[in-house]
Amino acid sequence: MKFILGKKLGMSQIFDEQRKVIPVTLIEAGPCFVVQSKNKEKDGYQAFQIGFGEIRSKKVKKPQKGHFKKANLEKAFRYLREFAGNNLKVGDRIDVSIFHQGEIVKLTGVSKGKGFQGVVKRHGFSGFSATHGTKHGLRAPGSIGSSWPERVFKGRKMAGRMGHQKITVQGLKIAQVDKENNLLAVKGAVPGKKGTLLEIVAIKKIGTVEKEKEEKLVSELEKEEKEAQEKKGENKPEEPKDKKEGGQS
After folding, report:
1. Is the whole model's pTM more than 0.85, yes or no?
2. Quick one: a GO cellular component term (predicted)?
C-alpha cells in the first residue's frame, strides 16, 4: 500500500493533450519519515507511524523529543499519522516519487467549518413559498414532529453546526507529479481550506481486482496447458530406426 501526508495549497488548472481544461488541486506531499513501526505481538495490530511538517525542536515537548530520538531522527514533526502497510523501516523517507500520473487515490481531510447554519444551507431544504401568506418563515424547517409521540426523533435534520468534519473522497486521479518540488496535482476538489492536512492513499480502481483475478486464472490455465503438451511430447514413444530408414528409401 502506498501512502503519504500532504498539505493543500489551493486549486489551479492544467491542459491535457486535447487542450481541454482540467481543474486540479495542488498538494505539497511529503517528504515524510517513518517514526514508529507497530506489530501484532506488541501492539495488537500492524501499522507504520509517519511524520510530516518539520518544526523547530524548541516547540516540541520532552516526551515527543524522546519519541523522535528513539527513531534516530534529528527532525521533529508537527503531524503524526498511522497507516497499515509493510516493507518499511523506521527512518525510511517517503516522497511523491512513489506515485505516478494516472494513479487513483483517496484523500482524507477536515472540511471547511461554516459555523451555525440553518436548514436551507445545511441540508438543502427548499424553504416556504414567498407568497400565499408567508411572512417570517421563508427559511424555516417546518414541522419537526407530530402531536404523538410528543418528541423529536433522533437524526431529524435541523439547524446546527455545519462543516469541520473528517471527510474522505475516493476515486481521484493524479494528473501530474512534480518530484523536484514535492507536488501532486489531483484532478478535482478535495476537502479543507488552504493548509489543511491531507492523508493520501493509493487505491485500486473499482473492477480492477476482479480483472486481475481473471487474468491470473487465464495465465495459470495457459501455463498448465503448455506444461501438459510438453509432457505429452516427452512421453511420446520414439519410432524404430528400421522404420525410419525404410521410409527414407
Report:
1. no
2. cytosolic large ribosomal subunit
- Burial code of 112-145, b = ≥16 C-beta within 10 A, e = fewer? eeeeeebbeebeebeebeeeeeeeeeeeebeeee
Nearest Cα neighbor of 204 from 87, 96, 103 is 103
Q: Which residues 6+ apart lie within 8 Å of 197 measured at CB?
A: 5, 6, 7, 52, 53, 79, 109, 110
Count CA within 13 A, CB hemisphere, residue 171: 4
Residues 173, 175: Cα–Cα separation, whole Å: 6
Cell of 31: 517528504
The single residue listed with the C-alpha cell 518530484 is: 179
Strand (E) or helix (H) holding 185: strand 183-187
CATH of domain 3-113+165-207: 2.40.30.10
Q: What is the pLDDT along the chain (249 residues), one digit of tens a residue?
A: 899 999 999 999 999 888 999 999 999 998 999 999 988 888 888 899 999 988 888 888 898 888 888 888 888 899 999 998 778 888 889 999 999 999 999 999 999 999 999 999 999 999 888 888 888 889 999 999 999 999 999 999 999 999 999 999 999 999 999 999 999 999 999 999 999 999 999 998 655 556 666 777 788 888 888 888 887 777 666 665 555 555 554
Which three cell numbers mark 156? 431529524
Strand 21-29 with 104-110, pairing? unpaired
| Residues 206, 209, 215: CA angle, nearest 5 degrees | 130
